[in-house]
Amino acid sequence: MEAGKDARNPRLKDSLVLGFALFAMLFGAGNLIFPPTLGLESGEAWPLGLAGFLLTDVGLACLGIYAVNAAGGAVESIDAALGNRPGLLLSGTAVVCLGVLFAMPRTAATTYEMAIVPYLGASVPLLPFSLAFFAIVFLLAMRESRIMDIIGKFFTPTLVLGVVLLVAVGIAAPLGAPGEPLSPTVFQDGVRAGYQTMDVLGVVSFSLVLMDSIRAYGYQQRRSQLGIVVAASLVALALLALLYGGLTYLGATAQGLDAGLPQGQLIVAVTYQLLGDPGVVVLGVVVALACITTAVALVGSTAAYFSKVSGGRLPYRWLLAADCAIGVVICNIGLDGIVGFADPVLGAVCPPLVTVIVMLLFHRRIRSRRAYQGAALAALVSAVVIELSLYDALPLPLDWLPLYDLGFAWVPFAVLGGLVGWLVGKASRPRPSLAEAAADGGGDGEGPA
């Protein structure tokens, strides 16, 4: 029994508090643009689109947090499964997608679309706005700031309350009735929209933060910690399902609006129809401040990660400046441009990470490193081929593949790759121990213990 913890049995209260904390980590202001657009395209089939969205957003993120901790720890489990170098490559790619290429510049583009365009239109070009945005982000990320503490604790809850109010009004007085789906692949669209949130790429960082909090609450035994992870994940899943579900429904009722609206401006148009100018003003201000908070967290954690990986040879401030400069460049392709650019990349990057996460759930039975490596590699290669086909870069008709319509056509290849890797591992020379494999940079040793 854990001293002072099981005796008073505060698990329900702790699970709720930590569940709200996990919800705050997974809920990002930049993610607001996806559910309304998904609902608009899904029409009366919006619950099906929402199911795909939740599966690859919060579902896989929470599953990943549990899996990596059950297998021995966020960083340790992935390194043990793939080897040090492949593990570093996978986690580094996730960091680059989140903190350099997509999520970070998207915060500025979202702010521009939702807080500037509705009032000033093109009179304030995106370039000077992005320069000002990332100058603020750079200054705030240079050091700990009381301003960031205030923004994070006040404006994120305010954003949530604003979204709840918007959804409540939209349910009480809907803009219209959901019509026929505008897309023949509603569930697959939801899956791809879930990838766009990039929450699954943050599994390692989310896991580290959550487990530190769980230990701070006094839970020291692995079984108790995993129990709290499950309970907190269920709380976060329920809250996000309600929030994103409401936004998806709003989009489904807004098919009478201009279907050609950019994603960022769709939710602004819905807000204007439901709450008028005051609602649009509050939404723009709160989203802007919440996006600044997110951007600071992303550039700061990215700079810290690469500074640590380089052994301190790359200074934190230089990395911070470089990341902000990249953010300015990518931001200026526009919000829809960033989303379009991210879609095929995430469609290729997420499958190998998801594969490793799912396999780690069975880490006590899957102990061959070659199996993990083979499955991840097959998932990556097949996902790349599928993306090339989707974008007509590779003239291969692949819609006959199993699970294609659900957006998981890469899964059978991952299973086959895992089996091949396991057989190769069985036939290869005796494998070194995990400690020896880690010492030589990740050989063919055993998988997670």
Break the fold down into its secondary structure elements and pairings:
Layout: H1 11-26, H2 34-42, H3 46-70, H4 74-82, H5 84-101, H6 103-120, H7 126-141, H8 146-172, H9 186-197, H10 203-216, H11 222-252, H12 263-309, H13 316-331, H14 335-360, H15 369-390, H16 411-427, H17 434-439
Helix pairs in contact: 1-10, 1-11, 2-3, 2-9, 2-11, 3-9, 3-10, 3-11, 3-14, 4-5, 5-12, 5-14, 6-12, 6-13, 7-12, 7-13, 8-11, 8-12, 9-14, 12-13, 14-15, 15-16
| The CATH superfamily title of the largest domain | Hydantoin permease
Strand element count? 0
* Helix fraction bin: over 70%
Poorly predicted ranges? none
Number of domains: 2
Return Rg in Å. Answer: 22 Å
What gross morphology would you assign? globular
Question: What are the secondary-structure elements, in order, as H or E?
Answer: HHHHHHHHHHHHHHHHH
- N- to C-terminal distance: 24 Å
CATH level-1 class of the largest domain = Mainly Alpha
The number of helical segments is 17
Question: What is the level-2 CATH architecture name of the largest domain?
Answer: Orthogonal Bundle
> What's the main sheet like?
none
- State mean pLDDT (0 to 100 scale): 87
Structural class: mainly alpha
Strand content: under 5%
CATH topology label of the largest domain: Hydantoin permease
